[in-house]
C-alpha cells in the first residue's frame, strides 16, 4: 500500500526510527513526528544496544547504526558481592547516551525528509493522516483513548534511574547491605564519559529507609524534580562503585515497574509501537530495542500489504511472538531480581551462573563457552573437582552430602515429601503456602507439569524452600530438560533432581 500522510505520536527512539524508515520506504509520503517535549529536553541516561539488536538495525538502516556504534561504549560485565568479584565478557553490548541516541535519530529522520514538530501533543483523532503510529511511551495517552484491551501489571520492587559523571570500566551489578536492607546497583558506562546507575530495592527496605516519605513529598513538586534525599544516601552506600563521584538525578524518583500488555495493537488507522504496546522489565528487556525492532517490522509489512487492516494483522503476527517471549523472560528476571538478596550467601561465581540462567535464556554450556574462567570456578565450587567431559552430565554426577546424608550423585533421590506446584509466580501467596508445607518435612520433592516453563518455576520454588527452610530439596523434571536442571543445581536452586521420561 502507499500511504499519503503518516503521523507519528512520540519523538522517542521508536517514533523517530519508524518515521525515518517510513519516509525511506515511501519518499512521496508526508511523514510528521509530533513530540510533546522540546528537541534538546530528555530524561534518562544511557541506553544499551545488544548485538542482536545491532544486527537488526544494520539490516534495516546501516547508516543510522554506523553513527550509533561510533558514539557508543563497549563494555564487559562485573558482579561484586561482599568483597568478591567476578568478571565475564559481554563486549558485544554497547552503551549509548540517550541524548546522543535521540540526536542521531532526529538528524537521520530529518535527512530522510521527516518533519519534526516539538512542544505539541495532539490526539490521534485530531490528526489528518492515513496512518497514525502511536509511539508515546508506557503512559501512552493514545492507548488509553483507544480500544486496545490494555492490561498493566505493577511490580513489587522499587527502582530509580540516576547517573554519574565518569565512565565505569565495566557494567557492574553490586548489592550493598545496609541497616535498612539491601540495595542493588545495575550500572554501566555510556558515551560522554558517563555511567547509568539504576538502583533497586524491596518495599520493606524502601520504607525502612524513609523513602516512602521522600516519594510522597515529591507528589506536588515539578515533574523535573528529583529525590535528592534518596540520591545523597545512595551516593554514600555506593561510594566504592562511584569512586568518589556524585549521583546525578534527572527526574529521578522511586518507581515500580509497569508491564504493559495489549490484546490488540491497532484500532482503526492507529497502531501502537514500543512501550505504548508492551513493556519488558529493564533487567532483561530494552524498551529501545523493542520499539526500534517494532518499527522495522511495521514498515516491512506495510510494503507488502493491500490495506491497513491487513498490514496491522501481519505486524502483530510478526512481532507479537518475539515480544511475548521477551516479556516472559523479563517476567522471570524481574522476579529473580526482586528476591535477589536471599542469594547473597552463594559464592559470587555461582551467583553469576544463577544470574545468567535466571530466565532460562542462557544455557550452562553456552555460558561456559563464552566465559570459561568464571564458569570453571563456579563448577569447582559446586562439585569440588575440575569439570571434564560432558558438562551437564558432570554436574548431575557430583556427589552430595546434606544433613548427615550422602548421595552418590544429584539424580539419586530418596523418598521425600511430594509438593505439587502448578503456579506462575514462585513468590506468590500460593507459593508461600507450599514453602510452609516443606518446613520440618525432612526433605521435599517439588513436582508438577512437564512443560519447560513449569520446570523453571519449580526450580525457583525449590530455591525458596531450600533457602527459607533449610530442607533438602529435589525437583522433578523431564530428562529432556536436563540442561535447565543442571543449571539449577549449580545455581543453588535445588540440591537434587529427579529425571522422568515425560515429553516436554
From TrEMBL:
Matching entries from Pfam families are given as: FAD_binding_3 (PF01494)
A single Gene Ontology MF term assigned here is: oxidoreductase activity
Keyword line:
NAD, Oxidoreductase
Record's InterPro entries?
Answer: FAD-bd, FAD/NAD-bd_sf, PheA/TfdB_FAD_monoxygenase
Q: Does the keyword NADP apply?
A: no
**Where does the FAD-binding domain lie?**
6-325
What name does the UniProt record give this protein?
A: Oxidoreductase
Amino acid at each position: 500500500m502507499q500511504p499519503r500522510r503518516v503521523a507519528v505520536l512520540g519523538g522517542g527512539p521508536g517514533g523517530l526510527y519508524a518515521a525515518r524508515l517510513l519516509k525511506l520506504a515511501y519518499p512521496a509520503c508526508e511523514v510528521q513526528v509530533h513530540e510533546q517535549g522540546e528537541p534538546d529536553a530528555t530524561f534518562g541516561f544511557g541506553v544499551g544496544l545488544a548485538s542482536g539488536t545491532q544486527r537488526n538495525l544494520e539490516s534495516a538502516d546501516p547508516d543510522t547504526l554506523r553513527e550509533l556504534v561510533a558514539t557508543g561504549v563497549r563494555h564487559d560485565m562485573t558482579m561484586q558481592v561482599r568483597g568478591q568479584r567476578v568478571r565475564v565478557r559481554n563486549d558485544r553490548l554497547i552503551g549509548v547516551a540517550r541524548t546522543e541516541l535521540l540526536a542521531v535519530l532526529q538528524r537521520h529522520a530529518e535527512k530522510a525528509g521527516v518533519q519534526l514538530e516539538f512542544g505539541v501533543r495532539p490526539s490521534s483523532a485530531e490528526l489528518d493522516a492515513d496512518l497514525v503510529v502511536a509511539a508515546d511511551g508506557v503512559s501512552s495517552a493514545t492507548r488509553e483513548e483507544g480500544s486496545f484491551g490494555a492490561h498493566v501489571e505493577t511490580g513489587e520492587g522499587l527502582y530509580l534511574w540516576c547517573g554519574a559523571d565518569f565512565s565505569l570500566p565495566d557494567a557492574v551489578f553490586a548489592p550493598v547491605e545496609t541497616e535498612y536492607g539491601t540495595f542493588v546497583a545495575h550500572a554501566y558506562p555510556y558515551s560522554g564519559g558517563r555511567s547509568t546507575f539504576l538502583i533497586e530495592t524491596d518495599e520493606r527496605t524502601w520504607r525502612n529507609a524513609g523513602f516512602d516519605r521522600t516519594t510522597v513529598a515529591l507528589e506536588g513538586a515539578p515533574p523535573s524534580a528529583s529525590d535528592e534525599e534518596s540520591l545523597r544516601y545512595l551516593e554514600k552506600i555506593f561510594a566504592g562503585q562511584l569512586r568518589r563521584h556524585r549521583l546525578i538525578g534527572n527526574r529521578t524518583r522511586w518507581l515500580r515497574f509497569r508491564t504493559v500488555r495489549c490484546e490488540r495493537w491497532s484500532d482503526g488507522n492507529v497502531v501502537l509501537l514500543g512501550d505504548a504496546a508492551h513493556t519488558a522489565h529493564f533487567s532483561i528487556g530494552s524498551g529501545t530495542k523493542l520499539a526500534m525492532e517494532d518499527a522495522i517490522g511495521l514498515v516491512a509489512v506495510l510494503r507488502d500489504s493491500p490495506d491497513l487492516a491487513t498490514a496491522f494483522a501481519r505486524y502483530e503476527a510478526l512481532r507479537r511472538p518475539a515480544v511475548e517471549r521477551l516479556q516472559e523472560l523479563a517476567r522471570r528476571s524481574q522476579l529473580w531480581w526482586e528476591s535477589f538478596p536471599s542469594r547473597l550467601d552463594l559464592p559470587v561465581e555461582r551467583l553469576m551462573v544463577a544470574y545468567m540462567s535466571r530466565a532460562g535464556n542462557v544455557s550452562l554450556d553456552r555460558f561456559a563457552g563464552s566465559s570459561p574462567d568464571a564458569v570453571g570456578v563456579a563448577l569447582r565450587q559446586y562439585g569440588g573437582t575440575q569439570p571434564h567431559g560432558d558438562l551437564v552430565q558432570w554436574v548431575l554426577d557430583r556427589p552430595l552430602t546434606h544433613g548427615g546424608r550422602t548421595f552418590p550423585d544429584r539424580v539419586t533421590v530418596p523418598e521425600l515429601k511430594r509438593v505439587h506446584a502448578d503456579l506462575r509466580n514462585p513468590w506468590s501467596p500460593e507459593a508461600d503456602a507450599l514453602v510452609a508445607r516443606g518446613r520440618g518435612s525432612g526433605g521435599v520433592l517439588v513436582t508438577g507439569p512437564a512443560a519447560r516453563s513449569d520446570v523453571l518455576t519449580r526450580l525457583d520454588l525449590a530455591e525458596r524452600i531450600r533457602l527459607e527452610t533449610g530442607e533438602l530439596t529435589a525437583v522433578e523434571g523431564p530428562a529432556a530438560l536436563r540442561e535447565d536442571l543442571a543449571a539449577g543445581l549449580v545455581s543453588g536452586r535445588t540440591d537434587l533432581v529427579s529425571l522422568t521420561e515425560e515429553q516436554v
